[in-house]
Amino acid sequence: MNNQVSIEDVPLNGFHQLLSIRSGGGWVLDGYVLSIIGVAMVQLSSALDLSSFWQGMVAASALIGIFFGGFLGGLLTGSLGRQKLYFFGPAIFVICSLAQYWADSGAALFFFRFLIGVGVGFEYPVAGSLLVEFMPKKYRGPRLAMLTILWFAGAAMAYMVGNAILDSGRADAWRLVLASPAIIGAVLLLVRIGTPESPRWLLSKGRTAEAERVIKKVYGPSFSLKNLPEQPAEKKVSLLSLLHSGYGKRMLFVSVFWSCSVIPVFAVYAFAPAVLQALNLKGDWASFGSVIITMLFVVGCILATRLINVIGRRSMLIHSFLWSGLALLGLGIHSDGSQVLVLVLFGAYAVFIGGAQVLQLVYPNELFPAEIRSAAVGLGASLSRVGAAIGTWLVPISLQSIGVGNTMFAAAGVTLVGLLVSLALAPETRALSLQEAASLR
Questions:
Q1: CB 214 within 8 A of CB 199
Q2: Dist. CA 344–CA 327, nearest whole Å
Q3: Nearest alpha-carbon partner for 435 in 71, 94, 133, 29
Q4: Closest by alpha carbon to 74, among 280, 254, 344, 328?
Q5: Which residues cross the membrane (predicted)?
Q6: Tell me: the pLDDT tens digits for 250-301?
């Protein structure tokens, strides 16, 4: 009977749940390690006497690292497999987070956070590909969307834990803040032990016997390759050739919408206290505001995850960019407004951008075939971080030169670009199998 059941249609089992924890833990750590710099920035800038240039460079360094890590990780994941590189990111996080404790200059922090970014860049194609290639069709979208929720949960944890450490009053508190991700990284390394290789990747390399063994181990002895939708075997296809054959339009869409959804978010997280203070949220209002807004990002992602199979991918993306862009426009207009109004508008942005955030991992993992999936996801992550790194580097300069109101207008403009590209290019992949979604129909 199981010969008639595709693994795309099986119910969730214990392995799926464990794999969700293993991959999801990477996104908790990513959110934590990328956001923790915003918590420590004020103290470390003072302690190391950093200029606005080096503040921007330190804040953008991890994003620059993601550019290289995403591209390299995507290529290596496609050639070496998902399993071998599943431990690279957490190991880098542990080593470099600890190394930051002894950093004595902006250049040293830039170097260590650049390497952290490389590790984050690896996580996108590695953990994402493993999860999507094992997950049944019905649960694929929500589980990929869940990763974004976990990213923001990690970011919220960074602000809560980081502020608690800073409140201890220790002279080296900012160093402890930057070293704290090492604990989460060590736990993640242990949790990921025993993860199998993707049978889809094994089959794409012609390693059918190994793929068969993995399928039986994960789904049960009555399952076999007959239950796996047909995949290309020993087919040597490069990312470049597939882009020329019709996937270039999809790569353009993924890169642009991904960039437009992360540029304002990363800029906010790197300088949240400074941005909120510029918007008249000072003292405890700025600290509490950072946590509240982060929690509202989580709420927005949770709502989007619940709706992703209801309203579809395309509609969700369009509405996400539209309403979040209007919220940023409101912040630009009312940059000198009351603290309550600023929090309401910032909170609205956080909730509405959730749709675009969760689709960052859903769309690129669904729109490309197995043989280039990891490379395409890695390339999308890399290209999106170019704009994010530039935007983050410009934030302190922008706040000083053109003011917070015009900075918010610029962020709204970026969101508008995302809306226009989504209207023109966003496809609908709801209810399609992974093979159907990745085909050029």
A1: yes
A2: 9
A3: 133
A4: 254
A5: 27-47, 53-73, 85-103, 109-132, 144-161, 173-191, 252-279, 285-304, 316-334, 340-363, 375-395, 407-426
A6: 888 988 998 898 888 776 655 556 666 666 666 666 566 667 777 788 888 8
Q: How far is residue 278's CA from residue 284's CA, in Å, rounded to a whole number?
A: 14
Cα separation, 192 vs 91, whole angstroms: 12
In sequence order, what are the residues at sequence separation of 6 or more whose Cβ sits closer than 8 angstroms to the Cβ of residue 284?
none
Residue corresponding to tokens 């923001």:
152
Helices 339-352 and 284-307: crossing angle, nearest 10°? 30
The CATH number of domain 2-195+236-438, selected from 1.10.287.130, 3.30.470.10, 1.20.1250.20, 3.30.450.20: 1.20.1250.20
**The residue to which tokens 């860049």 are assigned:** 121
Residues in contact with 261: Cβ distance below 8 Å, sequence separation at least 6, in sequence order: 320, 321, 353, 356, 357, 359, 360, 384, 418
Compute the C-alpha angle 174/270/76, nearest 5°.
100
Contact between 48 and 196 under an 8 Å Cβ cutoff? The reply is: no
Could you identify the residue written with the tokens 């590909």?
A: 129
Closest of 327, 242, 20 to residue 144, by C-alpha: 20
Separation CA 7–CA 390 (nearest Å): 42
∠ CA 58-272-398, rounded to 5°: 70
Measure Cα distances from 169 to 8, 166, 173, 290 in Å: 53, 6, 7, 20
> Does the pLDDT at position 47 exceed 80?
yes
Tell me the CA distances in angstroms from 352 to 34, 255, 267, 406, one per residue in order: 21, 20, 17, 21
Question: Which 3 state secondary structure label does DSSP give 273?
Answer: helix
Within 8 A by CB and 6+ apart from 29, the residues are 89, 90, 93, 154, 181, 184, 185, 188
Give the CA distances from residue 439 to residues 242, 250, 340, 432, in Å, rounded to whole numbers and listed in that order. Answer: 11, 11, 48, 10
Q: What angle do CA 31, 353, 43 make, to 5 degrees?
A: 40
At 5, list the tokens: 């059941």
Q: For the chain, give the number of residues.
A: 441
Q: Are 90 and 188 in contact (CB under 8 A)?
A: yes
Residue 180 has pLDDT above 90, yes or no: yes
d(CA 99, CA 417): 39
Q: Provide the CA 392 distance to its chain's centre, in angstroms.
A: 16
Pick the range with the lowest mean pLDDT from 24-38, 131-145, 259-273: 259-273
**CA-angle at 435, arms to 432 and 439, nearest 5°:** 90
Radius of gyration (C-alpha) of the chain in whole angstroms: 21
Residues 6+ apart with CB under 8 A from 368: 242, 247, 250, 376, 377, 438
